[in-house]
## 1
Amino acid sequence: MNFERGEQPHRPRVVQNRPSSQGGYGGNRDFGNSYNRGNRFNQGNNRPAPKRRFNKPPRQEKKIYFIALLPTAEAGKEIIRLKQEFAEHYGARFALKVLPHITLQVPFTADPFLEKTLTAGLAEFAASAQPFEVTLNGFGTSLFKAQRILYIKVAQEPAIMNIHKELVTFLRREFGFSRMLARDTFRPHVTVAFNDLTAPQLEAAWPEYEHRPFNISFKVNNLYFMRHNGSSWEVLQKCRLGQPL
């Protein structure tokens, strides 16, 4: 299915969930006072006309989502074993709460009523792509907003770099993602330790992991639309690559 604007209805935009006016909904007219102007309905009656009450639709609490690639079961077991080993030796355990994954689109917030639209759009996008191979090779570290991260490197091969580029273009065009949210920069990786990883822990571990071999390849057949349920991430939708709708 093509995504030309002239050939399909406009999709709701995820990142612009603002009311249409300062009044909140339906423009800036003051409906409560519109029947009292000029005292047209109060002649012979000293009591003001009752104001009409309009019920605003209930606000839904926004949810947090992201889009990822997941390894095969066999590769996932190896990554989890590695996380457990690191936690036992160095004490950083938070990463054990998160499924092994490669982030394609960083977390974003949206109203839950958009889930069906987002899911359908991602299914269409995935159907236009093709399965591809991913290779994990070695380890790296980074510092992001004062948070230390130990990760497994993902080879930046054309297939994975292209699907990220096409995805951010799709999210900007169809759902109004900003360039700050749907970013051009992409350094694919699988996290081993983060959040509770301290400077002394990383300093002690890095000499072991800096030159440690870790080589796994697996085939990617799906994109995963993930949602945070308040305590952990869950798979909201698995979108098959290369499958006609």
Note: Residues 63-133+157-190+219-240 form a domain with the Cyclic Phosphodiesterase; Chain: A, fold (CATH 3.90.1140.10).
## 2
Amino acid sequence: MGPRGHQSFLLLLALCATGAFVSATVLSGLPTTVSVMESAGPGTIIVEFNLTCQNETSIPTPVFTLQSTPPTYFFNQPIVAHRASPTPHYSVQITLSPSAALDARQVNQYTLTLEATCPGETPAKGQLFVQVHTVDGPPQCMARFASQVGELVQVSEDVAPLMPIYTVVLQRPASGLRFTIKDNDTPLTIDRAGQVLAPGSGFIPAHAGQVFRLQILVTDRSGRNCSGAVTVTVLPVHRPHINFMAAWRSVAVLEKRGAMQLVTQVQAQGNNVRYEIIAPAAHGLYTIDTVTGELRNTYELDLQRSPEVAHTQLLVRAYDMLHPSDSDIICLNITVLPTNTLAPHCSPAVLLAQVPEDTPIGWTLAMLTCTDPDASNSSLRYQVEGDQHSRYSFRMQGPQLQVNETLDYDSAASARFQYVATILVTDNGQPPLSTHVPVLVTVTPKNEHSPACPARAMFSVPEDAAFGDTVGRVNGTDLDYPFDNIEYSIAGGTGASPPAFYIGPRTGEIHVLSPLDYESKQVYILTVQLRDMANDADPHHQHSALCDITIQVQDTNDQPPRCMPPFQEFFIYSTRDPSLPLAQLQCSDKDESTMLPLTYTLVGGNTNGHFRLAGSTLLHSAFSDPPDSIHEPRTFELLVEVTDSFSAPRHSTTATLVVHVTPWATATPSTTTIHTTLRKGPLVVTHTEWFWAPSPWFVVVLTVSVALLLVALAWLAWKLLCRALSDPHVAKNNTAPGVLDKETGRASILSLQEQFDGRAQDPITGQDYLFNSSTGARRWV
């Protein structure tokens, strides 16, 4: 049993011991390492082993996966064949693919990972190391190169010297090879890399069309060799012949230009072209550059001194410098023209014109009178020059300057009210001479269009807008230049009295003039008049238009809520049921912009928290007094703040609710002989709460000042004490009112009278007490 069979057996025992048996696929006969020569070709069997499936009842087909490290396509997927004897199993083969080209110098080992799975069984995995070994064999030439015919190569005769034209390729790369050409009687050579090279000086014309057959021998260091043949065909290159495009040419040249001036230049097609004058043989008037073909006059041509130079005929020959027989001839007819010396004269010398922008096309603006001093019968040509706009706006009809297109003063691209151009007058002399006549055309405006109302004719403004605030802008348009030069005014409408708005006459901006109130008026319709300005040469020629502008007033939160009535007074008993509403506030807000409900808040007078608000409803809690206090009427002055919004702008008002609480109790007279008559009127006790939050610096200063004051008082008391102790009369009579008398042990009656101003009896306990009506202080007797 192999290692993997032993492992499978142990796995089977473990599964049986645990009581769970799972079928497992078994690989048998798979070696760990195999060797293969790098010369192995496609289809070579690398390894062969068996695979056994535990579940053989349904003859399952196993599934194989093969992965290679490093990745390569040199190995085929496993070939699986079912074998029924001696026991059912599968025979598996791994072979080389058609693209296999093993090279031990590149990769000498491949790791193949196999995974086989039978249906319903646990997969079996295996690993195979494929070692590639080098083959020390003789060089192997490619089949076509080593055949009897050999390789066929075609090369142009103008190929560059030593240019590679063929490379010997072997079936298996090797080093240390030597390439030689047997019976080398050809100009071709071969280098160490097996490249066949062109001749060192290139192919000569005699090689064109020749065929060279090379027998090449490839030898390694051991003397082993292979050979092959290469047939090289040299293709001739077609060379263009010398040729002129035309057989003759006419040339006109002016007289009196000086010597050696360029007359013309001839050019012929071909290689290594040279030029010469072949007729007349002894002319002496002209010379030609043999390389460039430039023809020049040898001396100044003057028709008055040499009238015979007026017409000359030359034959110029072009030839190949390397092949002089390859040539062509051209005939040159040279005419010397008299020189034109005076330009045309025109009147007037400057043209000035002023026309309105609605001048029709074809209208004649001015007429020139021009003559040629050199020839009375000379024909003159007239042409308008200038920028593109001016050149196409006018035309010349003979000597007449006419309008060629509409002179639009209101051009959207650029307002053109002045056109600057030049009339070019040219004669037919040689060289042609010209006279320039400046032209200045001024276009005057014409009020052709009426102002147009804006597309947006509705604005909105908040009712709390201040004086001068901008409501919107009336953007009227006018197609006349200057564009949109409009004066605005309010011509009428459903405005208020006094007017609620005014408009900027030049800007068209509508501003607030008087206060607005959404609750009294929500919509204003204004009639705005638009009048164009400075659009015509006549300042009185104006157009106008009326536009209806709608202004909607937006509601803003500018009024506080109102409560009706703002002051309410209630009288209740202290035993009133707390679940019953005490009061209902009736408050409202005229602003429509206030979308949230009004909020009600108790901000004052709610002593001891006896009252609360549920929306706009006032509720109270049960009233209770200490058992030792007297039940007397009390009055609560409640302040309710009513707010219309949670965010700015926010307004509020305060409603006042005065609640008189009368205690519901019966006073029982005491059995003692002392009777106290209580006042039937209500006892009003006013309790003031102060709240003060001083700044930190003030607290520090106050603390230091109090400390200094205490020190000063202590020092003063010490001084007074020392003086009192020194004076026996003062110490004897120094008894302060309201303190215990050292002789009687009772409180001074004077001090009690100063602190309390009344005496009463508690109706519940019957105990007497003194009270101070101003402070509410009590002292039980």
Note: The chain is about 10% helix and 40% strand.
## 3
Amino acid sequence: MSRRIINYFYKCGYIFPVITFIINIFAYKYLPESIPLQRDTFGNINYAVSKLEFIFFIPILQLFSYIAIKYPQAKGKKKIFHGTYDIAAGAILLFFDIFLLYVFIRK
């Protein structure tokens, strides 16, 4: 990646939750009414959420990870390598969300 792109994502890391939320909004009508989030060892569903709750789940998780990475840097307590953790956390959760949408829409 170009250093300019890394600097942009470092400054605007909140863009990942926005992109994920937009993708979830477009996929909303294709999702089933109840989405399982946890299964036991026998394959029984332990915890399921509605599709409205699901579209907010990953973007909020991304936002919390963004804040958790940025807050120590803002306070000057801990130096984290410039932009790498921001980009990695946002991108991994974005790909995870796309994977979950693929699995739930495919059914």
Note: The CA atoms of residues 27 and 101 lie 7 Å apart.
## 4
Amino acid sequence: MGGYGCMTACLDVGGLADCFIGYHDGNAGEEILETYAKVRRDIFLKYVDARSIKNLNRVWKTDPWTVAETDKFFGIIKELNKDKAALKEFLLKMSSIEYDFTQHYDKQPQTNGSINGAKGTPASVNRDVAASVQLQV
């Protein structure tokens, strides 16, 4: 699963947290949980599973000692690892698995712009956490 799996897990948990926060604060009804289940399943089937299979085949068919030189994707990642800001930007840009569940709130959340002390909207916090975890893997 590797780094991509960690990113997926963070986005899953972050999205579910947004749904619970919206429900708890009265900004969304129980149906937001059904929306969460449908959206995350659709994203899994459309993006995550396909990428996982592609990555599994890549690992299965590639010599681990020469993969950075012979596989274009791993070469890109190797170069991006030299610049953490560029790597973070790349990972966030290619993240087709992200979804902002706060758009299903009945009204805007009543917060001061922070969640647990972190600045930003719930979706931006999720992106930052996912990128941070990805960079550490």
Note: The helical segments are 2-24, 31-61, 67-70, 72-80, 84-93, 122-136.
